[in-house]
Amino acid sequence: MPLLSLLLVCSSIAAFAQDALPSWNDTASKQQIVTFVKKVTTQGSADFVPPEQRIAVFDNDGTLWAEQPIYFQFFFVIDQLKAQAPQHPEWKTTEPFKSALAGDFKGVAASGEKGIAQLLAATHAGMTTDEFSRNVNQWVSTARHPKTQRVFTEMVYQPMLELLHYLRDNGFKTYIVSGGGQDFMRAWAQATYGIPPEQVIGSQGDLKFEMRDGKPVLVKQAKVALVDDGPGKPVGIERFLGVKPIFAFGNSDGDQQMLEWTMSGDGARFAGLVHHTDAAREWAYDRQSSIGKLDKALDEATAKGWTVVDMKKDWKQIFPPQK
Amino acid sequence: MPLLSLLLVCSSIAAFAQDALPSWNDTASKQQIVTFVKKVTTQGSADFVPPEQRIAVFDNDGTLWAEQPIYFQFFFVIDQLKAQAPQHPEWKTTEPFKSALAGDFKGVAASGEKGIAQLLAATHAGMTTDEFSRNVNQWVSTARHPKTQRVFTEMVYQPMLELLHYLRDNGFKTYIVSGGGQDFMRAWAQATYGIPPEQVIGSQGDLKFEMRDGKPVLVKQAKVALVDDGPGKPVGIERFLGVKPIFAFGNSDGDQQMLEWTMSGDGARFAGLVHHTDAAREWAYDRQSSIGKLDKALDEATAKGWTVVDMKKDWKQIFPPQK
Q1: Are residues A218 and B234, on separate chains, in Cβ contact within 8 Å?
Q2: Which helix (H) or strand (E) holds B211?
Q3: Closest chain A C-alpha to B85 CA, distance in angstroms
Q4: Cβ–Cβ contacts within 10 Å for residue A200, how many?
Q5: d(Cα A310, Cα B256) in Å, to the nearest integer?
Q6: pLDDT of residue A60
Q7: What's the pLDDT at B109?
Q8: Considering Cα of A74, then A75, then A79, then A80, what sign does the dihedral take?
Q9: Over the Cα atoms of chain B, what is R_g?
Q10: Three-state SS at A310
Q11: Longest C-alpha distance within chain A, in Å?
């Protein structure tokens, strides 16, 4: 090969390597990620981790996609309620349905966990897993975010999509571990994140096996089987995986135990938090927010030297380009 | 390559292909398995299934390893009770502990589900997942079956080990879906079956996240989270996988719903039952057995043409050669 061609090949390889995270500015966060991945994937390095142990877990709401002004699954619930409202005239005068139909988040929040459970029961329970997936898929391809008017699966963070790919290209298995509904996320996680259903762990309701028209179905129940948030995240990870991840990313106090659990093993480990600091391009919120509150976990990250991503400074771009 | 060498290579390839299931006699069961695997893995075949959808699920007790005179996990429970007995003098006179310590299975059975739950709580609850795994590993490498005097992980079925390998060699992902304890099986499933922890689904107790000496741990709770048996098996599969398997093997009525669930999807599918017919080399039992009762599922298998493995006729060898 002539020298010039060789140089061109080498420089494109170098460019390719540099471009694995093109939406990340060349700040400390990116450097910490790349340094970690290099050391656990370099054969012969003291920190080398064999591929089967390269498990990376990601929170979803606020970590992989946005979560303001309220968790996106809640928009789905409201739209499902609206579709069912004609059969339920009593909802017009009964809380939490009245507030939910009016899009009054504060009113719904005032009804507490019991109210939210009632909404989930009304919109999720009684239907088969297949029917539910169809509903979610239909909604996710048409419903739009009130502020950006984009479909919700376009409100994912471009730098985090790149990170997912970068990790997988380096032999990691990427999992979602989220407080959101497991069945809700599974309906679109493969197409959106490249994460297959069995690698999506979320909050779960009970299921019941039934025969309908001679065919077996699984029917969603109102009873909750796992709240995959806070201390429930290590529980979800253990139930599903049975091994400790070596890499974890979250954005709120609900992720604190998952990060602690990840960091408690032997060998090289990585914990990261997305800090929402960009009021212009996204939202800015942390210690006082009712959605995605980041307070204790931020203190722990600072004390322990975990990576804290400053969205405003660290990310060139927040959302993917409009299609 | 000289012609002779070429012929030798070709004949060894052919021999290798024929030998994928060497412990299986060349009867209908083996032919049905091989025919199924060939048609779903042949590119261009109408029945071709892409590798990511080649999910195979196996019951454990009575399907991958023996289950007589009682589920092997129960021997573990008894041994754990014996180790703890000096600290619990009251067990000598209290059921179900008295019967369990005496190895009186009938006495334990008489105490019903509540009694069994009490035994599990006493031997599993309160300990961390790490402590429990260590206990199981220690036990499984030393305890021996009362009849054969072999360690329990040598009481696995050689033909089923070959089947697991054969499926994996053909791009399948192999899962355990068992009524046995998930954490109990995960401790040795990788070494014994080549099945990693995240592909072992079983009955589960609740877990609690706690800090002990400043380190996060998960503590096993007495409360049951999933009974992964009968109609609980499709529930376990859906929770963990979110997709329907295309291949399922069981041996009892507790596997019936898993087989129905597997067969209810589109395209080519396989359902198999191990029928315990060999009183000389293993045990012979079916419709009347209190352990691994096979009655309704046998009728359904016959009616629907599912594969029923006759251990006596179909298997050349039951257990692996003694080490």
Answers
A1: yes
A2: strand B200-212
A3: 30
A4: 25
A5: 53
A6: 98
A7: 81
A8: negative
A9: 21
A10: strand
A11: 80
Length of chain B: 323
Question: In the prediction, which pLDDT does A121 show?
Answer: 85
User: What is the per-residue pLDDT for A2?
Assistant: 54
DSSP, residue by residue, B226-239 = E--STTHHHHHHHH
Q: How many residues would you count in chain A?
A: 323
ipTM of the complex: 0.90
Nearest to B84 by CA among B116, B131, B119: B119
Q: Give the contacts of B274 (CB within 8 A, at least 6 positions apart).
A: B62, B63, B157, B160, B249, B250, B251, B309, B311
pLDDT in tens, A81-131: 999 999 999 999 999 999 999 988 888 888 887 888 888 888 888 999 999
Q: For residue A5, with 0-12 CB atoms within 10 Å meaning exposed, 13-18 middle and 19 or more buried, which class applies? A: exposed
Q: Do A198 and B52 touch (CB under 8 A)?
A: no
Helix (H, G, I), strand (E, B) or coil at A252: coil
A97 Cβ contact list (under 8 Å, min separation 6): A81, A88, A90, A91, A118, A119, A122
CB A125 within 8 A of CB A220: yes
Indicate the domain borders of chain B: 19-67+156-314
Return the residue matching tokens 């014996």. B82
If interface means Cβ-Cβ distance under 8 Å, which residues of chain A face chain B? 52, 129, 182-183, 186, 196-198, 200, 204, 206-209, 215-216, 218, 225-226, 231-232, 234-235, 238-243, 257, 260-261, 264
| CA neighbor of A124 nearest in space, from A92, A90, A84, A151 | A84
pLDDT tens digits along B108-136: 888 887 888 888 888 888 999 999 999 99
CATH code of the region A22-67+155-314: 3.40.50.1000
Would the CB atoms of B204 and A242 count as touching at under 8 Å? no
CATH number of B19-67+156-314: 3.40.50.1000
DSSP-based three-state secondary structure for B108: helix
Cα separation, A23 vs B118, whole angstroms: 56
Structure tokens at A251: 């954005």
Q: Which residues of A touch B204 (CB under 8 A)?
A: 239
